Amino acid sequence: MNNLENYTRFDEVLSDFVEISKTIEDIRQRIAQGGVSYASQDARQVALEGLQCDIGACGNWIKSLTSLKQLCQEYFGEEWELKYQQRMGTGLDIGKAEDLMLDYLRNTLTTKIHFKIENLFSNILKAISTNSPRGFWNIGNAMLLIAGISTSGREKEILTVLANLRNSFHANGIHNNADLKIQIDGIDFNFIKGQPVECAGWRHIVTVIKSNIAVVEAVLFSSAVASHSREIKDEFAVTNS
Question: Is 238 helix (H, G, I), strand (E, B) or coil?
């Protein structure tokens, strides 16, 4: 299993997932203390819970894969590779099959994080502003402005990194937008127009999730948003009438 970068094992990835989930939980509790019920269908609580669920699900799939491999090694001796391959349900080489599964988990998690943040910002804008732009770039700018955060500063760059990663998945891993080079927590994110994206391993993904949660936190506790104690409707929720 590759793309661990400076992680040495997946236990470290899972540990970081737990810490991110705890950070999100702290945000949810603070929002509840501000008058928005933890159990409500407020768009803020719904989005944050969804982020926790996505991160937890990804972590559980990683644990399932690593546990399956370990069990096969323990119980099947020299035949473990064949048994492991059979239980993964693939005819691919084990290393290739593992890489494809982990790429899928990483890319899916990044995409779902991106969607949930975009939907959260869009819901907030509809609730407290007459401006309802479309597209993540415009939605992000409008949300940052309302929160009193510069649209040309680091927070915007961090949101753009997430969007660039998500967009590259729809372009066979190629970056097709403007160049961007940024360092987050000592990790380099380099996007060069027309070039393959080389910053989508586990360390990069964990780093970009952490940093985007920090931006979300800054937005949610800005005076314009935090003062809105009424429930914000989740426009993207499925309802039955």
Answer: coil
The one-letter amino acid at 60: N
| Distance (Å, whole) CA 159 – CA 155 | 6
Strand partners, 184: 187
Regarding pTM above 0.90, the answer is yes
Both structure tokens of 221: 């506790």
Q: What distance in Å separates the CA atoms of residue 184 and residue 4, rounded to the nearest whole number? A: 17
Instruction: State pLDDT tens for residues 30-50.
Output: 999 988 888 889 999 999 999
Residue 70: CA atoms inside 13 Å, Cβ hemisphere, count? 6
| Phi, psi torsion values for 123, nearest 5 degrees | -65, -40
Domain ranges in the chain are 10-226
Instruction: Write the pLDDT tens digit of every residue in 81-123.
Output: 999 999 888 888 998 999 999 999 999 999 999 999 999 999 9
Q: How many CB atoms lie within 10 A of CB 78?
A: 6
Contact status, residue 180 vs residue 192, Cβ threshold 8 Å: no
In angstroms, rounded to a whole number, what is the distance separating the alpha carbons of residues 202 and 206?
6
Q: Cite the beta strand spans of the chain per DSSP E.
A: 180-184, 187-191
Q: In which element (H, E) is residue 116 found?
A: helix 94-128
What are the two backbone dihedrals, phi and then psi, of residue 40, each rounded to the nearest 5 degrees?
Answer: -75, 170
Cα-Cα-Cα-Cα torsion 143, 179, 208, 145, nearest 10 degrees, comes to -10
Count other C-beta atoms under 10 Å from residue 99's C-beta.
15
- Rounded to whole angstroms, the Cα distance separating 37 from 228 reads 13
Query: Tokens standing for 112?
Result: 């779902």
